[in-house]
Predict the structure of Transposase.
Amino acid sequence: MGSNQAKPKLRPIDPEFWTIENELPDPLPVSKAELDAIERYFGGVLDVVFDTKPRIQPAPTTPHQKGDK
């Protein structure tokens, strides 16, 4: 009894199958046009995420029935 057992062949569902290489420069250069696009499409979301001011909660409202004034 030895260790003559063959290794099972790796499949794409196995994490060991994949090799990840990071060849991107650090820091990653971003052009002015790319920054403008990010700001245009995600500016509102980024403002909310990175806002340092405390958010004021709206006053609670009470439901009313149709016809109530």
User: Anything to note?
Assistant: The chain is about 25% helix and 0% strand. The longest helix spans residues 32-49. The two ends are 89 Å apart (CA to CA). The mean pLDDT is 82.
